[in-house]
Please model this.
Amino acid sequence: MIEVSIFQIYVVFIIILYIIRRPRIGKDEPPLVPYTIPILGHTFNYIFNTKKFIKECKEQYGECFSIYVFGHTMTILSRSSLTDVFRNPDDFDLTSATNEILPLHQLLIYNGGTCRESVKFHAKTTREQVSGKLDTNIGVVQKYLLKGMEKWIGDCNEPKIVYSAWNMVNGIIALPIANIFVGEEAASHEDLVKSLENLAFDLGPLFMIPPILSFIHQKLHEFVITLPMKFGWNPVSRHRETVMNRVRPVIETRLKEKNMLGENYKPYNDLLEYYMNQPDFDYTKPKNLPYHVDNLFVMTFVSVNTTSRAAADALYDLAGRPELLNELYEEALTIDRECNGSLTVADVKKMVKLDSFVKESLRHNDNILNLVHYMISKSFTFSNGFTIPGGRKIILYTDDMLKSKEYFGVDAEEFEPFRFLNKTSPATKVDRSYIVFGGGRHACPGRFFAIYETKMFLHKLILKYKVSTKSGKIEDKLLIGPFSLPSQSGIVFENRN
Ligand code: HEM
Model:
């Protein structure tokens, strides 16, 4: 009788895997970068040597090429082929590719997470309720930024060192957002604010699980990371409970007010009121309030950590450059005197040096690759002539575009805080090369709010504190594979008075 050892089974398994997963590249496709280790392909370089590896691939194979990572062929796009993605939103889908990494459809069980259709609603909500209401929201943003700074940073009469400042900045940035989302009454409860503040951070570990099982099948990774949720573990549940407990009495009071006052009812200016005005709103039905709270959570995902990330990066960029801090302080002081400490939208527009600095800081976000999409049409031909088949995963080489000499000049790699000054190129302006907010039809609709909040935060901070890095140097961001995170080193806060 033939005895089969585990080792033999393993070898047969690997051979079958190799045959099944071997990339097959069509004749008009972008070139596949050669690799030496079967199955593993470029995975090691992709994770541990991303910057150099992708740069060298582009130099050798051109603006558009494919690599083999985690058992799949992925096409890397830069320059004109990258722009093609933004120009052809019907052919590329960000949501389905993002859901693979962060399975929102399993976490937000009442609204089913995000899909192309529901994102239209969130984009409309953002345009109408958040970015479209800067004038109305600015007072709330200012009030709660100051409260947040008081709580998180304090007086700093003695110098105070803060490590991992993203956490702290996230707390400050989340407070105004909570207030314009659920209104001042519900947001007066610390547990609700904490929930909105921590929601995305709590899901961070899911992002960090390397998709090892994708070597066998993409769906296997998704299946395993969502397994705990099938057994009832859901990190969103307790946040949903907290938010529902806090908003339910507010909804009841508002409905009573509406009944009593009729036409004289003065609508509140927050997202909660916006949801209450949706035709499908009926909080008495068991699944209705959780459904709207899940929508609120999508808005929280897209707004809180993104904006706090931008603000934290800018804070580190500022703290490492004392001469810049002095120059921005002069501008802040002039505007503060003119508006007597109470900012309007027009005052924020006057912060032109700060705007240029924030834009430069965003340009230096240092993500190498970003915005993974699936190509969802039968096939797609780029303007450079290459074709990819339906179902192909693509990712954008954003760092290459954001640091291109062609668009940003010979010093494109340098950090020049006033690069955009007097160039009619505000931080909110999306164009072919400035792609931190994406581009085309899906370009981030929240960018107007995000930039306003970030500028107002920095303005108030610069007026009150001197900030510097503990090391006295410009701090680098942390790199995890192709993605970056804000530095975790110490920042020193010192009261100006
Ligand atoms: C600095 C902060 C932010 C950054 C860097 C950022 C970045 C982005 C990016 C890159 C996209 C994808 C664009 C594309 O597919 O072309 C996006 C989409 C989106 N963002 Fe933002 N965002 C920020 C803040 C916000 C805020 C504050 C909100 C809401 C209050 C928001 C709401 C949205 C929505 C609803 C979409 C989906 C748009 C669509 O698919 O049509 N974002 N954002």
Remarks:
- The chain has 21 helices and twelve strands.
- The pocket of protoporphyrin IX containing FE is lined by residues 86, 94, 119, 122-123, 126, 130, 299, 302-303, 306-307, 310, 436-439, 442-447, 449-450 (CB under 6 Å).
- The mean pLDDT is 93.
